[in-house]
Write a structure and sequence with these properties.
The chain has 128 residues and is α+β, with helices and mostly antiparallel strands. It has four helices and five strands. Helix 2 packs across helix 4.
Length: 128
């Protein structure tokens, strides 16, 4: 097991059992969507990186949070994420009421597209 994954495991072990279960389920779902993403601790919380920051998540005293690493969303996602939004780019949820799997999948795929576009733009800029 890589050190980064070990650090994520340690982070989750320090969470309450309810939060640990909810966040582990979220972690596994992101891994299924994008198995090549790098998993690490960044800003004190578990994060997935893929051509840059992709998504992260964390446990707090009274809730769990999912961070899409952006504060801009396409219109079709805005209405779906609205019930969970707290601030500009944080989705909060209770462990016993996790975020819908379809919503997580849509957010991860959106973030993948954004990161791919940024990567392609950087590559195109270097060729000039």
């Amino acid at each position: 097991m890589r050190n980064d994954q070990f650090a994520v495991d340690q982070y989750l072990e320090q969470c309450s059992p309810e939060h640990q279960q909810a966040l582990q389920r979220l972690r596994e779902q992101v891994k299924r969507i994008i198995p090549d993403a790098e998993e690490k601790i960044s800003y004190g919380m578990p994060m997935f990186k893929w051509h840059g920051m992709l998504v992260s998540y964390a446990s707090f005293k009274n809730h769990c949070s999912f961070f899409p690493c952006t504060n801009t969303f396409p219109d079709d996602l805005k209405s779906e994420i609205k019930p969970y939004m707290s601030g500009k780019s944080t989705l909060q949820f209770q462990p016993e009421q996790p975020l819908p799997a379809e919503l997580i999948e849509k957010i991860v795929h959106y973030r993948m597209r954004v990161n791919e576009e940024k990567m392609m733009a950087r590559k195109a800029g270097k060729k000039k």
